[in-house]
Structure formats: C-alpha cells, structure tokens
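Before the break, one more example. Copy the sequence into your notebook; we will annotate it together after we see the structure.
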Amino acid sequence: MFTGIVQGTAPIHSITEKANFRTQVVKLPPEMRKDLEIGASVANNGVCLTVTEINGDLVSFDLMQETLRITNLGLLKVGDHVNIERAMQMGTEIGGHLLSGHVYCTATISDIIASENNRQIWFELPSADVMKYILTKGFVAVDGISLTIGEVKGTQFCVNLIPETLQRTLMGQRKVGDIVNIEIDPQTQAIVNTVENYLKARNL
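Here is what the structure looks like once it is written out:
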C-alpha cells in the first residue's frame, strides 16, 4: 500500500527488453534506498513494482506485458525520470489517501493553466465510463500523486497543484500531450460499483 505522497523522482539508468517483458533499472538516491530489500514494493509513477535486484544505487524492477500495456511505463526510455514512493509502513502518516499501486488507465494532459503560485492541469480520460469514478472534490492518483479533483467536464477533469508538488514530482515538467497513470480512489470505485449492481439487480 502507498499514501500518494511521492518522495521524489529518480532517473531510469537502463532498460532490458525481452519478449512481452522488460527489466527497468532505476538509480535511487540514498534516502530512497534506506533498508530497501529485494522483494520490497516501490511505486514507479504510481505503479507498484517489486524490487528484483539491488546493485549499489541501481535498483531493478521487472515489468510484465500487462503493466506495459496499461501504464505509461512502457513509453519511457533511458534518462527519463519516474515518481518514486516506497511502500507505507505501520505507523506511517497518511498525508494523501490509500493507494494500491494498481493503475486503472492512463490519461492525456489536455491543458495547463499556470499562474504565479499555482498550476491547474486538465486531463482527458479514455472513455466516459471511467468518469463515473471521478467526482468533484474526490480523490485521484496521477502518476502516484494523491490529488483532489477540482472540476469535472465531460471526459475531462482538473487538479490544482502547489509549488511543493511541482518541485517534488514530475508534474512540474509535464506538458500538454503527456500520458499519465490514473489510479481511481478504491473507496469511490467500491461505492459506485455497489450502487450500480444494486440498481441493476432490481431493474432500476
């Protein structure tokens, strides 16, 4: 489990491609490697990945075909950076909201509105069906960042970002057309699905 409070970014050092499979090696700074062990879970752009090898500051992760298909990790190349969050521990402050690291879909940045101390970013989701989980003032994770939804219009929604988020995460470098990972708030998803199933069962 994760909290959506990204600890920083890290560069991709190398990528090894195999049939329907990829090994991604990320160069982690010392503060992100403390007590890190093989088998630990680390979120890369909000995707829960398992550490498969540690060689100094180089940490390896294996990505299956489904991960490459559903998320933006398959689009990355050597030198690109990813948002990093270590798995939460018992007693950890939950400053964002609980995340599983299971990305639901990707979205495209459709607009960026910048002001002196704020940045509003609009995202286009792939289908209207996803929008039933996107509620004004609800939670959503974008590339692993816990964010509050600002407005919702059609198949688009926006978030408002403070300077700290822009500095600590990849959001400060994002531009229109970029693809980002979306994880829906699991509580919202459970409530919406339960209500839908209830109404369907009663032909309402």
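The longest helix spans residues 186-201. The chain has two domains: 8-86, 105-197. Try to locate both features in your own notes.
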